[in-house]
């Protein structure tokens, strides 16, 4: 036991030294700060243990060398910044830390952050929303896709996802002058590249015309809709591309809400019943029975409406899925990341 603990201390010390030698660049903006923290390849899998105050990195880029760039882009109202007035100066102070152990334990590395300004006559904080998502128009429609925060109240402020936690992926279509439309995720795959090539290695998430495969492997599901033109995929993070940049590629389809069938649907598997369930009308879940085989049938009415439907290929990312249990010492207790 003594030897094991001794080795653990040595490993922690080595990692602390690696972090301490990292390149840190700080840019103070008007109401926010942008920090680039270059870390070694050994620390990339542990990026979920890097903090600016109480905030995880808002983005992690994995470089071709295997090294990483942890980016912190936050408003001073976030991350528990300290605001100090000293004479004619306004100071915002915080700390960059590397915490391989729970927060009750001292950080292995601490780097002070300070932004100094001339004290303004009035200080009114503005809201910074750096989330990951995009909007794009097609055929008079505007498609959106973004990663939401855990509370489902807005766009996520970090692209680092602990393994096993949930990634709420929101997609919507703005209808404008169109009749009410139903948004469906016909197909989604994960890949380690922002563009899909014929030989790209992919991890299927949704296939077979709207069948959520991840609901069978884990606990993923579609959340109840708040509007027909939007859908939330409550996706549990997976091991594919662990520690690398992962992109979610989805084919979004805007469809007639009155015409649901085997090729236009949103189905997830309910473990309690062992059956597939149709998101928009559980009483018609028989439409999902083809999820165990091949969904190909198409009603005549669907054929007539097909020419008036719209599809769009969307990409979300990069996301970085990290294993919080992959600590430098495996028996160190882990804590949930704020």
UniProtKB/TrEMBL annotation:
Matching Gene3D superfamilies: Zona pellucida, ZP-C domain (2.60.40.4100), Zona pellucida, ZP-N domain (2.60.40.3210)
Protein known as: ZP domain-containing protein
An example molecular function term from Gene Ontology annotations: acrosin binding
Keywords for the protein's UniProt record, in alphabetical order: Disulfide bond, Signal
Region forming the signal peptide: 1-22
Entry annotated with the keyword Signal: yes
Gene Ontology CC: one annotated term: extracellular matrix
Top-level taxonomic group: Eukaryota
PANTHER family: SI:CH211-14A17.6-RELATED (PTHR11576:SF3), ZONA PELLUCIDA SPERM-BINDING PROTEIN 3 (PTHR11576)
Any one GO biological process: binding of sperm to zona pellucida
InterPro entries cross-referenced by the UniProt entry: ZP-C, ZP-C_dom, ZP_dom
Domain spans labelled ZP: 27-274
């Amino acid at each position: 036991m003594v030897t094991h603990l001794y080795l653990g201390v040595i490993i922690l010390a080595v990692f602390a030294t690696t972090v301490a030698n990292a390149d840190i660049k700080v840019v103070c903006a008007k109401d926010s700060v942008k920090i680039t923290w270059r870390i070694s390849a050994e620390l990339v899998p542990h990026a979920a243990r890097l903090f600016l105050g109480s905030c995880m990195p808002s983005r992690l880029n994995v470089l071709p060398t295997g090294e990483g760039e942890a980016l912190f882009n936050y408003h001073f109202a976030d991350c528990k910044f300290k605001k100090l007035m000293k004479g004619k100066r306004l100071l915002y102070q915080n700390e960059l830390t590397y915490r391989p152990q729970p927060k009750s334990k001292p950080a292995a590395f601490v780097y002070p952050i300070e932004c100094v300004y001339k004290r303004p006559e009035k200080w009114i904080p503005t809201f910074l929303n750096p989330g990951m998502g995009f909007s794009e128009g097609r055929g008079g429609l505007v498609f959106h896709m973004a990663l939401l925060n855990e509370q489902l109240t807005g766009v996520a402020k970090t692209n680092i996802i602990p393994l096993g936690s949930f990634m709420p992926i929101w997609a919507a279509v703005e209808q404008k002058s169109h009749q009410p439309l139903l948004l469906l995720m016909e197909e989604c795959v994960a890949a380690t590249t922002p563009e899909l090539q014929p030989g790209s290695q992919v991890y299927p998430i949704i296939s077979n015309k709207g069948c959520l495969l991840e609901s069978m492997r884990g606990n993923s599901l579609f959340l109840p809709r708040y509007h027909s033109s939007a859908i939330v995929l409550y996706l549990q993070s997976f091991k594919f591309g662990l520690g690398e940049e992962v992109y979610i590629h989805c084919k979004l389809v805007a469809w007639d809400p009155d015409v649901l069938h085997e090729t236009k649907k949103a189905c997830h598997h309910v473990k309690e019943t062992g059956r597939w369930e149709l998101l928009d009308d559980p009483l018609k879940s028989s439409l999902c029975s083809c999820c165990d085989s091949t969904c190909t049938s198409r009603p005549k009415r669907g054929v007539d409406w097909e020419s008036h439907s719209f599809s769009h290929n969307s990409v979300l990312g990069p996301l970085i899925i990290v294993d919080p249990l992959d600590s430098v010492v495996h028996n160190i207790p882990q804590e949930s990341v704020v």
